[in-house]
Specification:
single chain; alpha/beta; N-(1-d-carboxylethyl)-l-norvaline Dehydrogenase, domain 2; three-stranded mixed sheet; binds nicotinamide-adenine-dinucleotide; binds D-Mannitol-1-phosphate; NAD; mannitol-1-phosphate 5-dehydrogenase activity; NAD(P)-bd_dom_sf
Length: about 475
């Protein structure tokens, strides 16, 4: 059955909607989170001017464009509960999709349209081109250099945003709000840096204007959303009778905490369950340094033991133990109090969520692009503890588990595949490490910045790596 004919399909009239939001990076998470919040409002007859037009700038996004365009941009969202039951809906809030490499002019026209009031992003942690140590935009990246030289014919997210803001200004239109929904500490601030610094490369004066006039709210986003598998597609066909080229599965838990800084207005997200707050930073840090850091721990220790899924790591006594001790002894002490949240209960709930085997989140997904994730989720706590005399041994050992995994083999001899945009460099330093250069991995400036020069971090890392080789991961985890 076609999605549009399903009893689960939206009852609201989609021909009557206007795209007020342009979203870059329509992956699984955007579709399980922001698009779902909007769908909730649309079902109540609200937010008709806030439908979403997706944009993809990466060559790989053609697949998503084709999948969505072939089914009127509808898709199935399947929430998998821990007891094995499922809650399903067909989501209708995305009404168009533009694939930038094929038609960049259409993307610019859409961004420059008076209808567009919010430009939102889930372009991954690495998509912002930020040096984690300095917080500076990497002006020498290929895309940034291209868009600086050809500001009228951009290829990257930030190049498009800058070009569109210029067109709006020239046309006398107010700037849209730029809302990052990526897992980054201060994601709005980072989006600001990326947009302003991209603009500065071609027009410093306009960059200043953007900095003064464009709003970049910060937000914290949360819903574990694994990669869609063929088995998920088959399940949607068998159980719901639906032909869906790209359904999304996710956990039932969902959270969105955001700053209310939308000069051109916004959907009433709070009426769909989001929390609007003055200061989102404590919530963001809690989520990134606890949930996302725990995911790194489950992934790197679990992969060393040859495990495949997040829930397998989460119920393994040694991995769960070392992960919990990391959270309690090294991550939580770096957090500020979070209004309305008991951090002990939050950590307990994380382990319940991680243990949901119906989600079947893979350790490969959690470890993907770890070179972008470790610097955002784990290394900030290491740095803060080093500064304040706090403990770092479990974080350093997690880095060593990752480093050893990058040599390519689990303890049971199975292969560990490295899927990382910085993978070549990781493989090269892991090779030097395997040949006896014990600190080679942490000398990778892109990931570790100045940390290799810190004697305490280096010693803890090198010792953990040595112990891992001599005693194995289980004994090391138990000793921590
Ligand atoms: N999956 C989750 O559980 C989850 C939960 C919370 C937040 N997030 C955030 O959402 C992001 C995306 O996750 P996902 O599960 O949707 O992944 P995904 O792989 O399904 O989608 C990623 C999207 O980002 C685009 N992208 C990647 N690099 C880009 C770049 N340099 N410029 C522009 N676009 C780029 C891809 O083309 C794709 O459209 C994560 O990196 C994270 O920051 C994910
Ligand atoms: O998607 P990333 O790159 O931010 O990190 C991997 C996971 O930790 C992450 O996707 C979580 O599942 C998510 O942040 C839960 O809300």
């Amino acid at each position: 059955m076609k999605l549009a004919d399903s009893p689960l399909a939206p009852k609201y009239d989609r021909s009557n909607l206007t795209a007020g939001i342009v979203h870059f990076g329509v992956g699984n998470f955007h579709r399980s989170h922001q698009a779902m919040f909007l769908d909730r409002l649309l079902r109540e007859g609200k937010a008709k001017d806030w439908a979403i037009c997706g944009v993809g700038v990466m060559p790989g996004d053609k697949k998503m464009r084709d999948a969505l365009a072939g089914q009127d941009y509808l898709y199935t969202l399947v929430l998998k509960n821990p007891d094995g039951s499922k809650d399903t809906a067909v989501i209708g809030s995305i009404i168009d999709y533009l694939f930038a490499p094929e038609d960049p002019a259409a993307v610019l026209d859409r961004l420059a349209s008076a209808d567009t009031k919010i430009v939102s992003l889930t372009v991954t942690e690495g998509g912002y081109n930020i040096d984690d140590e300095t917080g500076n935009f990497r002006t020498d990246s290929e895309g940034a250099v291209h868009d600086a030289a050809h500001p009228e014919a951009p290829q990257t997210t930030f190049g498009f945003i800058v070009a569109a803001l210029r067109r709006r200004k020239e046309a006398g239109l107010d700037p849209f709000t730029v809302m990052s929904c990526d897992n980054l500490p201060g994601n709005g601030n980072i989006a600001r840096t990326a947009v302003v610094e991209q603009a500065r490369l071609s027009d410093p004066e306009f960059a200043e204007w953007i900095d003064q006039n464009v709003s970049f709210p910060n937000c914290m986003v949360d819903r574990i959303t694994p990669v869609t598998t063929d088995a998920d597609r088959q399940m949607v066909k068998d159980e719901l009778g639906l032909d869906d080229a790209w359904p999304v599965v996710a956990e039932p838990f969902v959270q969105w905490v955001l700053e209310d800084k939308f000069p051109l207005g916004r959907p009433a997200y709070e009426e769909a369950g989001a929390q609007l707050v003055e200061d989102v930073v404590p919530y963001e840090l809690m989520k990134l340094r606890l949930l996302n850091a725990a995911h790194q721990s489950l992934a790197h220790w679990g992969r060393l033991l040859g495990l495949e899924f997040g829930h397998e790591s989460a119920v393994d006594e040694d991995i769960a133990g070392v992960t919990r001790r990391y959270l309690e002894q090294e991550a939580r002490p770096t957090l500020r109090p979070v209004p309305g949240i008991d951090l002990n209960a939050y950590i307990d709930e994380l382990f319940e969520r991680f243990a949901n085997e119906a989600i079947a989140d893979t350790l490969a997904r959690l470890a993907q692009d770890a070179s972008d994730r470790m610097p955002k989720f784990v290394l900030p706590s290491v740095r803060e503890n080093l500064k304040n005399g706090g403990q770092i041994k479990i974080g350093a050992a997690m880095c060593a588990a990752w480093a050893l995994g990058c040599e390519g083999k689990a303890e049971d001899g199975s292969q560990i595949v490295i899927d990382d945009q910085h993978g070549k460099e990781l493989a090269a330093s892991a090779k030097r490490q395997a040949e006896g250069e014990e600190a080679a991995f942490i000398e990778d400036q892109f990931v570790f910045g100045e940390l290799a020069q810190n004697e305490q971090f280096k010693n803890e890392f090198v010792q953990a790596l040595k112990d891992l080789r001599e005693k194995g991961a289980r004994e090391v985890m138990r000793s921590l």
